[in-house]
Amino acid sequence: MIDVLRCAALAALFCLAAPAAAQQFDRPGLLERAPPQARAEIAAALQHVLIVRHARKADEDCNAIPCPLSERGEAMAARLAAIIGDPALPLAFATATCRAMATAAPAADHVFPHQASDGVEAACPPHEAVTRTRAAAMAHARNAPMRWLLVAEHSNTVCLWAADFAGEAAAQAAGCDETGRLQSSDYGDIFWLYRTRQGQWRLVRLRGVFDVADAG
Q1: For 187, phi and psi rounded to 5 degrees?
Q2: Fewer CB within 10 A of the end CB, N or C, for the chain?
Q3: By the 8 A CB rule, do 107 and 93 touch?
Q4: What is the pLDDT, as a whole number, of residue 216?
């Protein structure tokens, strides 16, 4: 799996020098959904980390590792991939739960899992025990030469990424509560972290952009 990470990082390396002009932005489906006042800065940014809560589950009361996405959740994952656009991202990170990995999978060539909670090595089949921690995933995201990264998390862990990269104040301004959680009804949002040319991480929240209507 480490070889996969290395290959994906090398594949993404050339993108760090991508054109900065908005009309040449490499993910226009994302940029058009960003707040207008932030688009110029986003278009000039060097690195992007997209944090999402997993899509909707088959059973909202199920929180175990194997809990799958519902049909609506699968449609959300497909919509997320469509918004991110082609080509698919070389790499995504996700907690080792089936619902998080299934959310990230349509948008990326490879999904690399980390522990859902520190010390919990259980993983969605066919993955074996996962020893990689969230802290290790964050360090890799911050330091690897990847222009784009998608990360699929949970309502109580999305905000950990937001706060770690952009700071507690930015996370709370984006809707994380004082305990570092999202509301239970918060689905379909993209928390877009981007690193400016001055080396600062900024955060914008694209609300509900990959949610879909309930077919029922």
Answers
A1: -130, 150
A2: C
A3: no
A4: 63
34-73 burial code (b ≥16 CB/10 A, e <16): beeebbeebbebbbbbbbbbbbbbeeeeeeebebebbebb
Tokens matching residue 116: 């859902």
| pLDDT attached to residue 18 | 42
- Dig out the tokens for 205 from the structure: 């929240």
Task: Pick 2-206's CATH classification: 3.40.50.1240, 3.40.50.620, 3.40.1280.10, 3.40.50.720.
Answer: 3.40.50.1240
Strands (E), the chain: 47-53, 92-95, 111-114, 148-153, 190-195, 201-206
Spatial contact of 160 and 141, defined as CB atoms under 8 Å apart: no
The two tokens of residue 20 are: 């900065």
Question: pLDDT tens, 106-148?
Answer: 999 999 999 999 999 999 998 889 999 999 999 999 998 899 9
Strand partners, 203: 193
Upper half-sphere CA count for residue 19 (Cβ side, 13 Å): 8
Q: What are phi and psi of 17, to 5 degrees?
A: -100, 20
Q: Residues 42, 45, 48, 51: is their CA dihedral positive or negative? A: negative
Neighbouring residues of 179: CB distance < 8 A, sequence distance ≥ 6: none
pTM: 0.90
